């Protein structure tokens, strides 16, 4: 079943000098229930813009966005807010936690808008979620006292606490070292699979991208299926001693992708 579907989506903004910047130039993408999709692309290629449109935080300039078959443009803002709150969980590169609040407070926050059982049991539900991400012993710690990896686990717990059907991760490992990033990604994959949520991960790290089942590449606002095997080969050729994370754009030629 189609969860979220973009048809020929463009996004343009008018800059201070009155010129127009075309950020997305006709993107079509369908994400099904339980799908795991990765999107790689250089900095400035429009990845965050695309993710915000998928998550209904931002509207396209032209084209359509449909969530579970309903066209988003036609919705009133109250309905849209509820739809997003009930269905979408975001994980960002910079964690975006409230620094002076505890891990538990941060994870409970989205449940403040929930109804019924979820609202009344929010403390227990948040504590259970923190337990699930391996932070059961840290629930009362202030967010800014936690390590980067721990903060991202809290952010994952917060994104998942309302059991969203769609998890959107924008460079979730971008602020973490390789090992911490890898364990955070396994956790994200695991919990998404466990809850049968769809996961869309945006990254410039090919190892992170390779975890998904379907791979895309965004290049100057155009989305195309990506062949990660070829991208890996190109990166390996470019860097004989693989020392760090393999990133798109380090190769002398852009990694090629095949259509299909
Ligand atoms: N609201 C905006 N106003 C002006 N420029 C923007 C705006 N949003 C994004 N951009 C520009 O559009 C391009 C793509 O942005 P973004 O989607 O954040 O790319 P990415 O996440 O791939 O780095 C960048 O050059 C960025 O500076
Ligand atoms: Mg970005």
Automatic annotation (TrEMBL):
Region (Disordered): 241-260
Entry keyword set: ATP-binding, Hydrolase, Lipoprotein, Nucleotide-binding, Transport
Its EC number(s): 3.6.3.-
GO molecular function, one term: ATP binding
All copies of domain ABC transporter, residue ranges: 4-245
EC class: hydrolase
InterPro entries according to UniProt: AAA+_ATPase (IPR003593), ABC_transporter-like_ATP-bd (IPR003439), ABC_transporter-like_CS (IPR017871), ABC_transpr_LolD-like (IPR015854), MacB-like_ATP-bd (IPR017911), P-loop_NTPase (IPR027417)
Superkingdom field: Bacteria
GO CC terms in record: plasma membrane
UniProt name for this protein: Lipoprotein-releasing system ATP-binding protein LolD
Organism, as annotated: Microbacterium hydrocarbonoxydans
């Amino acid at each position: 079943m189609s969860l979220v579907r973009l048809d020929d989506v463009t996004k343009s903004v008018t800059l201070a000098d009155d010129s127009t910047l075309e950020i997305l130039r006709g993107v079509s993408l369908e994400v099904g229930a339980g799908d795991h999709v990765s999107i790689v692309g250089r900095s400035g290629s429009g990845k965050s813009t695309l993710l915000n449109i998928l998550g209904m935080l931002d509207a396209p300039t032209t084209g359509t966005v449909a969530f579970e078959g309903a066209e988003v443009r036609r919705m009133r803002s109250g309905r849209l807010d509820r739809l997003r709150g009930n269905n979408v969980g975001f994980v960002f590169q910079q964690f975006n936690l409230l620094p002076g609040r505890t891990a538990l407070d941060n994870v409970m926050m989205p449940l403040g808008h929930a109804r019924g059982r979820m609202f009344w049991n929010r403390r227990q539900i948040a504590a259970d979620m923190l337990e699930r991400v391996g932070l059961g012993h840290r629930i009362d710690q202030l967010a800014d006292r936690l390590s980067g990896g721990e903060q991202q686990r809290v952010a994952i717990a917060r994104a998942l606490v309302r059991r969203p059907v769609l998890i959107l991760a924008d460079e979730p490992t971008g602020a973490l070292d390789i090992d911490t990033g890898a364990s955070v990604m396994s956790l994200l994959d695991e919990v998404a699979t466990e809850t049968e949520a769809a996961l869309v991960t945006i990254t410039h790290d090919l190892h992170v991208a390779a975890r998904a089942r379907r791979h895309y590449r965004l290049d100057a606002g155009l989305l195309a299926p990506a062949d990660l095997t070829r991208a890996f080969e190109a990166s390996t050729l470019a860097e004989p001693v693989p020392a760090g994370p393999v990133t798109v754009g380090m190769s002398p030629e852009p990694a090629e992708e095949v259509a299909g």
